[in-house]
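Q: Structure tokens for this one, please.
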Amino acid sequence: MYKQIAGGSDVTGDGRADLVAIDKAGDLWLHKSTGSATTPFAARKKIGPGWGVYNQLVAVGNVARGAAGDLFARDRAGVLWQHLGQGDGTFAPCTRVGGGWNAYQHLVGLGDANRDGRPDVLGVGTQGEYLYRGTGDWKVPLRGPQLAALTFDGGPYNSIS
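A: Here is the predicted structure, written as tokens:
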């Protein structure tokens, strides 16, 4: 049903992480978290069309310190776009973060990886893993790449999901 799915950002402003997904027609859907273990999500709600231009959707948390959680989305040309959450499950018009993001097979919203109080993004590619530290400023939401060198039990990860 969906070609992209992302979770972890509280896009509704209620303190719970929600799910968003892009369907095959390019529509974005919200699955609002309920906080219930038996029914974790409310019925899906269509947010809007036009999201089919993206090949990666990343829930990054509240990067811009605004009303709610935000999304990053990468288009087919490798440009990363920021969608600021408005607190009601919708997003402000997108702003361009920058190009060259097609160098990564995976983009991962990490939460606060470096413990500075701001959400960060990990880019995983054939040349390694790179941490992009959040700035807290929606105009320039991420600092430049820093080699992350992920390891687990003494060896590098071979998969990120």
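A few notes: The chain has a mean pLDDT of 90. DSSP finds no helices and twelve strands in the chain.
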